Structures are given as C-alpha cells and as structure tokens.
Amino acid sequence: QITLKxxxxxxxxxxxxxxxxxxxxxxxxxxxxAGVAWIRQPPGKTLEWLTLIFWDDDKRYSPSLKSRLTIxxxxxxxxxxxxxxxxxxxxxxxxxxxxxxxxxxxxxxxGQGTLVTVxx
Amino acid sequence: xxxxxxxxxxxxxxxxxxVTIPCRASQSVSYYLAWYQQKPGKAPKLxxxxxxxxxxxxxxxxxxxxxGTEFTLTISSLxxxxxxxxxxxxxxxFPWTFGQGTKVEVK
Lengths: 120, 107
Hints:
Largest sheet of chain B: 7 strands, mixed
Distance between the termini of chain A: 40 Å
Distance between the termini of chain B: 35 Å
Largest sheet of chain A: 7 strands, mixed
Strand content of chain A: over 45%
Helix content of chain B: under 10%
Largest interface: A-B, 19 and 23 residues
Number of helices of chain B: 0
Mean pLDDT of chain A: 97
Low-confidence stretches of chain B: none
Oligomer: heterodimer
Shape of chain B: globular
Order of helices and strands of chain A: EEEEEEEEEEE
Structural class of chain B: mainly beta
C-alpha cells in the first residue's frame, strides 16, 4: 500500500526559505514511470500543482513559481524534498505531496498535507 | 495555461438525488481529465481518471463523461458520505491545472 507523509515547519517568516520533506512507502522512485508531486491549497481555495520529480530525476515546475522552487529526491531514504524561497504571506497553504499514477499526470495517493503559515 | 471552470461553486442536493457536476476547459484537453473528492481537513481522493475511468475502490454510483472541453461527474444516487467538494484536473497540457471546485451541500 502506498503512503506519503509531509513534514516540515508550520510557521515561516516572510522572505525565509521553506523546506518540506515527503516520506513515502509502498513504491520506489527508482522504478520506471514513478513520480512524486507537490500540490498546495490556500485556505478555502483550490488546488495548485507546484512541481513533480520523475524516477529518472527529470523535473517539472509550475512556470509561475519556477524561479522559487527546487525539488530533489533521495531514493535510498524514500524521500522527496521541496524547497521554496522568498516566502510570502500569500504562500500560506496546506502543502501536499502526491504519487503520480504511472499512466498519467494525475495523482492517486496523497499525503495528509501540512499547513504552512507565512507570518512575521 | 488551460483554465478549468467549475460552475456552480455550490450545489444543493438531497440524499438519493442524481447529481451532475460540470467542468469546462478553456481549450481541448482530449480525455485527459481527472476528478477528485475532498472533505474538510482531508486530502483529495481520486475518483475518475481519463474522463470516464473509475478508480479502483470508488463506488459505482460515480461516473464521468465528456471529452474535449466539456466534462461531467455524475453521482447516480447521492449518499450521505458524498457531501464534499469535487475538483476536476486536466493533465493534457503542462502545467496541469485544477478547477475551482463544486461543493455539494445538503439541501
């Protein structure tokens, strides 16, 4: 069974860098077709896809946030790390990591999410 | 970016009702569309992929249809557990985008 769980700070100050870790089990990110994405959801708003990393270390970033995002993986630890620089209050959201279905760019397993608040 | 429009934002219905939730894309996404259900404080749950394919374990009262720019999620007989917010997501074109959601509430 595939599970994912996000971890990291719940509060960051404006201009700081956010680092979130997704720890997963039930699949390997070295398997052909595998991918893990980060998706966020501001309170009361819709979902926004941020970034995705593939089994072969290929990466995709949302064009609107590309300059601020970095995604990396540690296959041996079954972890994916998201870094977002220059945080702003508008970045306050629940951040989810999710497993990409091998046959498409949709997401069949999600972590529980972690609420990150940006405030001084 | 492809814009996904879900209207209405809120839909009132009763248990046993047949409910249809529309989703429109700003340009064709072929049949590369997924539907998710989200309850308050929970992560989204995949219901439908490739417009009409039911995800494993999802009750058969859920179905999806459409292609191109017009899609529909149908709940054939609304159950108490189905009161939630439903999102569509296109994955035909990068970046992948979600609709604003339709909340199904008690009438």
